[in-house]
């Protein structure tokens, strides 16, 4: 079992990219500051993607510039291609994330190219990032199932993970985009991928659509995985993954870890305040169980 865990807070990006009414840059900046204040140090703050594809992430350059100087934070942004890379670098990005898929159907819907083409697109991005001393994280979507193709074979995930690792990603985040995984499948997948990318460099990015995310994380931790992507309030989803709901909630993850004696450095009261603030803004209560329980007290 992992004895320490690093949380990557993806709420300001994954959490807000699917909101019907886009959340403005000033409110996204306030959320990021509140999350940092709560003790979350690695925060994904935006995406340099097509504004036609994801209008919710416009002004990510402004958001990044406004938070980049904040002490104690590492701020990540998504980059799909060289155009996005140039904009991210100009805004001062120090860590970018490229994003691929284990399934062809989702790759086509999300980034309008095949899986192999996406890897080719990432090559110059990663090479330029290396030259500019910008760290690159790699995502793989649909690792436990695809909204267009159904079952996804672990070998398809292994192939993409190997490619991202070989290109120089420092960490590969395994996305259960539609939250269909179960603990035994998550365990089996982590074992398979860890044969090619060291377990210490794998992250678990589990959406909670079917209520399995915490159980899947626990299974992954038993395998030795120690990086968890989560979103405050269980926000999230992807417009190109029909039916997908939010990421596992950061409050739920923090509650589970602290209860297991694994220190997170996160102040639950401050995290709850950040979560409540953003849910007021989007007009929905947080979906997380821990937020509901604590708010009812
Ligand atoms: P495309 O249409 O094939 O791109 O889209 P293109 O190169 O043909 O360009 C088309 C237009 O987009 C042009 O503008 C470009 O300038 C513009 P026009 O001439 O029509 O006015 N463009 C851009 N604009 C801003 N920034 C850019 C950029 N690139 C092109 N970087 C593309 C391909 C990848 C750009 C598009 O499909 C896209 O932006 N997709 C992003 C989709 C996305 O952000 N999805 C959500 C994130 S992934 C996710 O949530 C999963 C994850 O959480 C893990 C998990 O849960 O599984 C990470
Ligand atoms: Mg996601």
Automatic annotation (TrEMBL):
Coiled coil: none annotated. Keywords: Lyase, Metal-binding. InterPro entries: Aldolase_TIM, HMGL, PYR_CT. Pathway: Metabolic intermediate metabolism; (S)-3-hydroxy-3-methylglutaryl-CoA degradation; acetoacetate from (S)-3-hydroxy-3-methylglutaryl-CoA: step 1/1. Belongs to the HMG-CoA lyase family. It comes from Bradyrhizobium canariense. Its EC number is 4.1.3.4. This is hydroxymethylglutaryl-CoA lyase. GO terms for biological process: ketone body biosynthetic process; L-leucine catabolic process. It is an enzyme of class 4 (lyase). The keyword Lyase applies. PANTHER family: HYDROXYMETHYLGLUTARYL-COA LYASE (PTHR42738).
């Amino acid at each position: 079992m992992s004895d320490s865990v690093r949380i990557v807070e993806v709420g300001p990006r994954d959490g807000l990219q699917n909101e019907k009414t886009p959340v403005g840059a000033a409110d996204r900046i306030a959320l990021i500051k509140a999350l940092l204040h709560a003790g979350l140090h690695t925060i994904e703050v935006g995406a340099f993607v097509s504004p036609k594809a994801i209008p919710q992430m416009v002004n990510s350059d402004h958001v990044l510039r406004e938070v980049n100087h904040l002490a104690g934070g590492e701020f990540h942004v998504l980059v799909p291609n060289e155009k996005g890379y140039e904009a991210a670098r100009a805004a001062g990005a120090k860590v970018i994330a490229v994003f691929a898929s284990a399934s062809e159907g989702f790759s086509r819907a999300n980034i309008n190219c095949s899986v192999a083409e996406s890897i080719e697109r990432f090559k110059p991005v990663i090479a330029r990032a290396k030259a500019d001393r910008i760290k690159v994280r790699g995502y793989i979507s649909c690792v436990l199932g695809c909204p267009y193709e159904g079952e996804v074979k672990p070998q398809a995930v292994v192939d993409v993970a190997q490619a991202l690792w070989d290109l120089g990603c420092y960490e590969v985040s395994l996305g259960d985009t539609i939250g269909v995984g179960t603990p035994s499948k998550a365990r089996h997948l982590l074992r398979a991928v860890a044969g090619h990318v060291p377990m210490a460099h794998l992250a678990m990015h589990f959406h909670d659509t079917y209520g399995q995310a915490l159980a899947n994380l626990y299974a992954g931790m038993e395998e030795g995985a120690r990086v968890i992507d989560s979103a405050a309030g269980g926000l999230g989803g992807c417009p190109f993954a029909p039916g997908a709901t939010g990421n596992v909630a950061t409050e739920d993850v923090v509650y589970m870890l602290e209860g297991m004696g694994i220190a997170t450095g996160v102040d639950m009261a401050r995290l709850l305040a950040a979560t409540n603030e953003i849910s007021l803004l989007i007009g929905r209560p947080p979906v997380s169980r821990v937020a509901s329980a604590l708010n009812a007290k």
